[in-house]
Design goal:
By secondary structure, this protein is of the alpha/beta class. A five-stranded parallel β-sheet has the order 1-5-4-2-3. The longest helix is centred in the N-terminal third of the chain and has 14 residues.
Length: 132
């Protein structure tokens, strides 16, 4: 009987996934402004129209709803530090989960998204259009 208990226990132990999912690192607006490591990708996962209406300086846009979203998102090197934002945190946290599920480890989400960024009177940039 004791041997069965030990076998069942060992099966349970070895069937569990001990590589617990990493937590999403949430950062504030001031954390981003004061971020010392300048080697990161700032990723805006809002739609192209939202991005054109104003974005955090140096952000690149990959539309969360585009058909090529996953392909574009997963094209970054897995050891790349990625800071993500959207409007409020819905799409950015989903994006962070996708990255974490695919082996990325250095992932951050800006608390409150661009809404918080603007509310705190931080600088935003706009897409420039030129007419020839």
């Amino acid at each position: 009987m004791m041997n069965r208990v030990i076998i069942v226990f060992l099966i349970f132990i070895f069937s569990c996934d001990f590589s617990a999912k990493k937590e999403i690192n949430m950062i504030s607006n001031s954390d981003l402004i004061n971020f010392q490591d300048k080697d990161y990708i700032l990723l805006d996962v809002r739609t192209a129209d939202e991005y054109k209406a104003g974005y955090i300086p140096n952000a690149i846009n990959i539309d969360f709803y585009s058909n090529s979203f996953s392909q574009n998102l997963l094209s970054f090197e897995k050891n790349t530090k990625i800071i993500i934002y959207c409007r409020t945190n819905n799409r950015s946290t989903k994006t962070a989960d996708i990255l974490l599920d695919n082996g990325y480890t250095d992932i951050y989400v800006i608390e409150g998204g661009i809404t918080s960024w603007i509310d705190n009177r931080n600088i935003i940039e706009y897409v420039n259009y030129s007419i020839d």
